[in-house]
Amino acid sequence: MTEGSGAKDDPHPSTDDFRALGIDVDDPRALAWMEAHLPEFRQQAAGQRPLYWILAIGFVVGLAAQIGGFLLKTSVTTEPVLLVADLLYALGWSLWTGVVVVFFVQIWPEAKRRQLKQWLDAYEATRREHARAGGGQAPGGDGAPTAR
């Protein structure tokens, strides 16, 4: 493998990589702006916000395409335009229903998984607190509170 900006063993991108993204690393104002907004960017990069935006846009565009295709299909009688209207209607239908399927198959179960993980973490933290407060003994395994 050749050395350079794309070397695999180099964990830090080079200044050429930043310039390719349109970031001027020599401009102190750009660096100060990036430093001020770094927590926002880290949160957005680690979160699901871009996915939600893409799905929302897909849903709206799909619904609009289906409605537009339906209105065009009902108002024209010539064959080529009718074909385009039918294709637009089908595209819209498949786009917004695809977003609904992704929501029920991917987004909702993932949110429930995160919620259950938070509940389990809170439960385990409570058990640890009780164990520390009770002299190192964990509460009973039957889920009943321990008597004091």
Draw up the topology in text.
Blueprint (H helix, E strand, L loop, with lengths): L14 H6 L7 H19 L2 H27 L3 H55 L15
Helix pairs in contact: 3-4
Describe this structure in words.
The protein is built from four helices and no strands. The protein has helices spanning 15-20, 28-46, 49-75, 79-133. Mean pLDDT is 81; it is low at 1-7.
Q: How do the helices and strands follow one another from N- to C-terminus?
A: HHHH
The value of Rg in angstroms is 27 Å
User: Strand pairing plus helix content: what structural class?
Assistant: mainly alpha
Helical content (DSSP H or I, runs of 4+): over 70%
* Average pLDDT over all residues: 81
Q: How far apart are the first and last residues' alpha carbons, in Å?
A: 66 Å
The residue ranges in which pLDDT falls below 50 over 5 or more consecutive positions are 1-7
The number of distinct β-strands equals 0
Shape category: flat
Count of helical regions = 4
Largest sheet: none
Q: Tell me the β content.
A: under 5%
Compact overview of the structure:
This protein has 148 residues and is mainly alpha-helical. The chain has helices at residues 15-20, 28-46, 49-75, 79-133.
